[in-house]
Write a structure and sequence with these properties.
The chain is an alpha+beta fold. The chain contains 7 helices and 6 strands. Strands 1, 2, 3, 4, 5 and 6 form a 6-stranded mixed β-sheet that branches. Keywords: Signal.
Length: 194
Amino acid sequence: MMKRKLFALFTALTLCAALLAGCGGSSSAGTASSAPASEAASEAASGAAEARTGAENGAPDLDAAVSALLEANPISNQFEIAAMNIEYDFMLAAEDVVSYKGVKSNDNGDAGLVLVIQPAEGRAEAICEALDTYKQDQVAFYGNYAEFGQAQANVQNAIISGSDSLVVMLIASNECTSDAAALSAAVDDVMNAQ
């Protein structure tokens, strides 16, 4: 009987040690092993959203427009706008967008954004309306936080401009707030170049 109790105790201790070893380990090892999986999942989600929208991010014919706008409105800590953002953040319909390119700030409290879209034929107005809705949603969001007053003001003054061949949305980064005339001129230059 004593042998059974010792064997059960030894087995229980062995299982506890195995559980602790499985749950422990350094955080860098856990991060390294989970990073490829999360990157793969992110790429798969982005690819699926891109397939649904039919849009292409970074179309070469939009590079010059985005570069010109970023020169006037440098965005800190840039986050590339992906197909998932086009569909879920900006609520743009798949059939409305041929291609797009853009970045937004990934800094807390900085709403800076540069987005250039090639609309499908006859869909520029619908895209502008969706971007205006995004603008109003962001104004409301930043209005919930007193410390983000500058970002809210920048979103309220966002520039949305559209033509049959191009739609542009620009939100000043916190660094470029005071230069509204230069930002407006940069958008005009991009639109006139089309």
